[in-house]
Write a structure and sequence with these properties.
Elements lengths: L6 H10 L2 H6 L5 E3 L2 E4 L11 E4 L4 E4 L5 E2 L1 H9 L3 H12 L10 H6 L2 H21 L5 H9 L4 H6 L3 E3 L5 H8 L4 H6 L3 E3 L6 E3 L4 E7 L5 E7 L8 E3 L15 H11 L1 E5 L2 H9 L5 E3 L7 H7 L5 E6 L3 H17 L2 E6 L6 H18 L2 E2 H13 L3 H16 L4 H15 L3 H34 L13 H15 L4 H6 L9 H12 L7 H7 L4 H12 L6 H14 L2 H16 L3 H28 L1
Helix pairs in contact: 1-4, 3-4, 12-15, 14-16, 14-17, 16-17, 17-18, 17-19, 20-22, 20-25, 26-27
Length: about 625
């Protein structure tokens, strides 16, 4: 679909979208000199290595080597295609993009993800309209009001109602000329057992639209208004919806999270909405799944502290146990609040108010201390009780990858239980071994499944060489990006002909064809590159600023050319082979002439070396 967005419009969007503002919606950035830095959203780290350059309008992580411009950031962060990222930023910047008439073939080229987002948007409009207007949604609206939810919350979160009909949404989408196969792929309808048609997945339920961090509707949750089962029903996994990677309400909680540095995590839609309505806006909910590393990775861009709000039952404790290692790994401080018996966040804040909730949350226990405390209450401090406590805490302790943090918790536990610290450490080490074996088995199963699904062997990872020649080529590409004044010298000396690394050669040629300047810069070059590895290299080489001058640049060029007399010869032979394959005889003759000169030069240099010996 990139071809359907004119280049001048792409350029207009890129120039209008400030990368610092866009990235700040996902990462807590701090000004560091001319650039901004923060914790990388693409890998786990405790020390910021993620850098954003407002001048060059690019980002780069020195930890995982990911980099790019504002479009590639959204593509990586939200899994958008290039056209999707352009359209998202265009809407954000108030730029109208042309919508040309599309032929049937062009319509087929519209990405599946874009179609699913569009279908979900239609569904959201349908559900919301059924709730707020007409007779069908009266009972649902009365139910929401009885639960204490205002019209502001209903409209703000675009709550809806799925009518008590088998094909209400299906017929609506048919009128929109949406193919049934795509509606099924969006998870909104289910094929009948006899394969004779479809029926709506959501019927006679309050509907909660689920949005990603780009404010796109990716799925839905539905809740009954009586005692029917299942009480909650969520969209299935689709190409745009993965419950492991989304927290309900996080997009609405984001600004308050930045303000307070804290996120309250609850288990249900109504819990999140109830707290939000009472002014506790920095609240998000899991979607019928345990907290995952993707969830924590997502939230750490906004917060330094998470407070888990669980019901006072065994399930809440188990959920805390599973999440310990994840929070420690991501460097997010985690605390746990256990509500009084018989209460969930919705009922607690309704009865006691937001001030009482804030006081309760203010006294939240650090998550590992909480697990120790609850284990003591559950088992007591008899000899058998102490052994049971130790058994309960082995896996949470073993899941902590930070050795220093794990050692401190082991010390605390050994003191609480009066068990020798070395004995506790030994048991934890045994458990680490067990977990490692379990992970290996899971990884092998996943790999076998992946290979079977793809019908091919696993891809081999390419390792970039770190020879001196490669480093010189990287330096030259860096100077071409940062000091365009050297480009005439690069051209005159035919420097790129000496390159051995095909990726760096491609980037060097790209820079020669599209010289970077103050107005366009490296961000423009990235828009011309489809390959993520090449974008990462461009970002890496341009963000490390050096003080270039003509004299130093010429030294590096000479060093590359003279470092190995064979380099140019090898390069020319490769070019000759390519020209022969293309049957370009004129180029072959020209290159053979250059090769003959280089061969004579190499022979003279070799003879000179032999005479010196």
């Amino acid at each position: 679909m990139a071809n359907f967005i004119p280049e001048d419009k792409i350029e207009e969007v890129k120039n209008a979208a400030d990368i610092v503002e866009v990235v700040s919606e996902y990462v807590l950035l701090k000004k560091t000199g001319r650039n901004y830095s923060g914790l990388c959203p693409f890998h786990s780290e405790k020390t910021p290595s993620f850098t954003v350059s407002p001048e060059k309008q690019i980002f780069h992580c020195f930890g995982c080597n990911t980099g790019g411009n504002v479009f590639s950031f959204l593509m990586k962060q939200d899994g958008l295609s290039f056209p999707e990222s352009v359209r998202f930023l265009a809407r954000r910047c108030g730029i109208d993009l042309p919508r040309p008439e599309m032929s049937g073939k062009m319509r087929q080229q519209l990405s599946e993800r874009e179609q699913l987002f569009k279908i979900n948007r239609y569904a959201l409009e349908f559900f919301h309209a059924k709730l707020v207007s007409g007779s069908q949604g009266k009972q649902a609206m009365a139910y929401l009001k009885q639960r204490g939810f205002s019209r502001k919350i209903i409209d703000g979160f675009q709550l809806g109602y799925a009518p008590d009909a088998w094909d209400g949404l299906l017929n609506y989408l048919r009128h929109k000329r949406v193919p049934e196969g795509m509606i099924e792929k969006a998870g909104l309808i289910i094929s009948r057992k006899d394969k004779n048609g479809y029926y709506d997945r959501f019927r006679n339920r309050i509907i909660f639209p689920i949005l990603n961090m780009s404010r796109q509707t990716i799925g839905f949750g539905g809740r009954v208004m009586d005692d029917a089962l299942p009480k909650y029903l969520n969209s299935p996994e689709t190409p745009v919806y993965n419950k492991r990677r989304v927290l309900y309400g996080l997009i609405a909680a984001k600004n308050k999270c930045r303000e307070d540095g804290t996120l309250y995590i609850v288990e249900g839609y109504f819990d999140q909405l109830a707290l939000y309505q009472k002014g506790i806006e920095n609240t998000a909910a899991t979607l019928g799944t345990a907290l995952t590393d993707e969830h924590i990775h997502l939230m750490k861009g906004f917060v330094k502290r998470a407070v888990l709000i669980f019901d006072s039952d065994e399930a809440g404790i188990k959920a805390s146990e599973r999440s310990v290692g994840l929070f420690v790994k991501e460097g997010v401080e985690a605390h746990v609040v256990m509500l009084p018996k018989g209460h969930d966040p919705d009922t607690f804040v309704a009865k006691f108010g937001p001030k009482a909730f804030s006081e309760l949350a203010g006294n939240a226990m650090e998550v590992m201390s909480f697990l120790m405390h609850t284990a003591e209450k559950r088992h007591g401090l008899t000899v058998s009780g102490k052994l049971a406590i130790l058994e309960d805490l082995l896996r949470p302790l073993a899941s902590i990858t930070d050795v220093s943090a794990r050692q401190l918790y082991i010390k605390e536990l050994s003191e609480r239980l009066g068990i020798d610290e070395k004995a506790v450490l030994e048991k934890v080490r045994e458990t680490i071994g067990v977990l490692a074996k379990e992970h290996q088995i899971q990884a092998r199963r996943a790999e076998r499944f992946s290979q079977a699904a793809e019908g091919m062997p696993p891809k081999q990872t390419q390792v970039r060489e770190s020879r001196q020649e490669n480093r010189l080529e990287q330096q030259i590409v860096a100077m071409m990006l940062q000091y365009p004044e050297i480009l005439p010298e690069i051209d005159k000396s035919n420097v790129l002909a000496y390159f051995m690394d095909n990726t760096l050669l491609f980037l060097g040629q790209l820079i020669m064809d599209h010289p970077p300047d103050m107005e366009k810069g490296v961000s423009n070059l990235m828009s011309m590159v489809d390959d993520a590895e090449k974008r990462n290299i461009l970002a890496s080489l341009s963000i490390k600023e050096e003080m270039w001058n003509q004299r130093d640049c010429r030294k590096i060029i000479s060093k590359l050319i003279n470092h190995s007399p064979k380099r140019h010869e090898i390069s020319l032979k490769a070019q000759i082979s390519a020209a022969e394959r293309e049957n370009n005889q004129e180029l072959v003759i020209k290159l053979l002439g250059e090769l003959q000169k280089i061969t004579v030069l190499n022979r003279k240099q070799m003879n000179a070396v032999l005479r010196e010996q």
